[in-house]
Design goal:
The protein is an alpha+beta fold. The protein has helices spanning about 10-20, 35-40, 55, 115-120, 140-150, 150-175, 180-195, 210-215, 220-235, 250-255, 260-265, and strands at about 35, 60-65, 70, 80-85, 90-95, 100-105, 110, 125-130, 130-140, 205, 235-240, 245.
Length: about 280
Amino acid sequence: MATAHFPQTTAPLQAAAAAWFLRGAQKPSELLQIDLHALTELLGGTPGAAEDADVSAERFGVQRVARGATLVHEGAAASMLYVVQSGSFKCVQTAEDGYEHVLGFAWRRDVIGYDGLSGAHYAFAAIALEDSRVVALPLSSLAALRQRAVAFDAALQTIVARQLAHAGESARVMAAVAADARLARFLVQLSARMAECGQSPRRLLLRMNRRDIANHLGLAHETISRSLRLLCDAGWLRVNNREVEILDAAALRRCARSTRGAVDEATPPPREPALACAA
């Protein structure tokens, strides 16, 4: 697994230059940058027209992260906050016995490293599922930037709140007893996230592999494959390797709302035997 090392610095461009570690890396003078207005728009906010010119002109480095590379390490000193500009990441936490648990996934607009503000260390590792790009902001100057850029601060708070809501949704996935119901909830949530990212909510390209999904849902890899076949046999999905097409979104949502699973939902309950009438 490729690994990225990001030195602690308060200068965004210097941090980006030092972190441009991947294949095909440009020279520091060729590094991509993004201004505050574009960053605010990336977070889903509307840049403030009345903001100070010096603040609006501030620029941040954009870093490329190759597939399989680690953006942040669990337990490492937190120095940077990252906003996903493109691509995706899996967030992994390692137990004392070495077992790696996939906590969730980060997509475009998501923030990685915000937890570093609480304990000065990253609570989990973030590993790129595909070639990705992130905007890097030094944590040391984040508070001052939020005070000077109101629109950016509002957009950042909204994104962090949305991620907390998504974390709650992920917790509800585990409440499903049946494996296919868990998988249905995961796919429904993934469909909604893709819609938020401007992608098709019906045709999904799974950037993570089935083992990652199984780990995230607390299921065996074979169980994920079996559950996908079950949902396909029900006529709700069409699956081709990592390409998943949702054929019946309403039925998939009904399964996701249940704890019983696709087979129980699709099979009507047995009819009660008719009672004989007394003569």
